[in-house]
Structure to design on (339 residues):
């Protein structure tokens, strides 16, 4: 302990070892706490027998495709967060031209997302921001 | 035939094992940080105040043979054996035991022979039924002894839920049509194939 508390080679080695042990501990904590399996978004009330669900990425891509069809949206990013048992949340960030207002874009996006949010019991949270200069609605 | 799965349910002791790992990990991170603080020359009295490292070290360094009476040694030995057994059991429960092989479906077992359906044949049947649905671009199936999983990719977003429901119904109908036992069908959307940047409405 005296070698550790005094300046010198022992202190340098101890600093490196301490940093390594901290990293090891934190990686173990994350291994214990982070879920091992991806949680899918479950379609409530499936037909007889079995179940229907969707992976977050695939559902997010579908939601992005629908969002970009909405009037006044130039591009969009979508994140899907599944609920504990069923349903979940869709976080949509849409880029809009300067001529469109946020409430109209939000309403248009929510309407477009209805085929997904309805059956999958998803709550959509839509935000919009002015798109990059030169971006346009296709 | 017994279900060929080694470990399907979450063991209640798994939680205890993970809790122990969490405590160990937090202890490692905490005392690693203390070593780091000491080596970057933070005042030892401050580190001692927040971690008690010197007190613990002095206590352990001060232990001698006279501190261990025969009774203490017995208690320590019993505790060591108990710790070895319990921690060893918890470590065994934490070993990953993945799904084993899928089995063929035994349709008829008789004196003159058995009739079985290969698992791949059932999976192919499900994939074909799924691919017949409009909007489905890819399908991959996996037959389990108590469930038939079908992973699909679709190209339409607007009728997504309807397509998935139709796939489930079509697979169940295909099983029935071929006189196979109707298993619960689990349909999972695993991909979205976007042909164009925009879908024309």
């Amino acid at each position: 302990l005296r070698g550790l508390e005094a300046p010198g080679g022992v202190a340098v080695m101890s600093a490196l070892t301490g940093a390594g042990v901290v990293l090891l501990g934190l990686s173990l904590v994350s291994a214990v706490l982070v879920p091992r399996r991806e949680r899918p978004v479950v379609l409530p009330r499936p037909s007889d027998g079995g179940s229907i669900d969707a992976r977050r990425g695939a559902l997010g891509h579908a939601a992005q495709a629908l969002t970009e069809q909405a009037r006044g949206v130039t591009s969009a990013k979508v994140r899907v967060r599944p609920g504990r048992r069923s349903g979940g949340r869709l976080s949509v960030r849409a880029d809009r031209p300067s001529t469109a207002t946020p409430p109209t874009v939000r309403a248009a996006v929510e309407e477009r997302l209805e085929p997904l949010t309805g059956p999958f019991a998803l709550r959509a949270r839509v935000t919009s921001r002015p798109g990059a200069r030169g971006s346009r609605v296709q | 035939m017994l279900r060929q799965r080694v470990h399907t349910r979450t063991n209640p002791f798994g939680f205890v094992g993970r809790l122990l790992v969490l405590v160990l990990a937090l202890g490692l991170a905490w005392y690693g940080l203390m070593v780091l603080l000491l080596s970057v020359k933070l005042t030892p009295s401050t580190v001692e105040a927040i971690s008690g490292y010197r007190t613990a070290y002095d206590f352990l360094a001060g232990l001698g043979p006279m501190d261990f009476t025969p009774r203490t040694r017995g208690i320590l030995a019993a505790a060591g054996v108990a710790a070895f057994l319990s921690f060893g059991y918890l470590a065994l429960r934490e070993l990953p035991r993945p799904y084993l092989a899928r089995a063929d479906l035994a349709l008829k077992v008789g004196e003159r022979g058995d009739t079985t359906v290969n698992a791949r044949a059932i999976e192919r049947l499900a994939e074909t039924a799924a691919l017949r649905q409009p909007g489905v671009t890819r399908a991959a199936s996996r037959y389990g002894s108590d469930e038939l999983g079908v992973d699909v990719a679709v190209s339409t977003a607007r009728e997504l839920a309807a397509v998935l429901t139709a796939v489930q119904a079509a697979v169940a109908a295909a099983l029935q049509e071929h006189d196979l036992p109707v298993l619960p069908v689990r349909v999972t959307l695993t991909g979205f194939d976007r042909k164009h940047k925009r879908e024309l409405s």
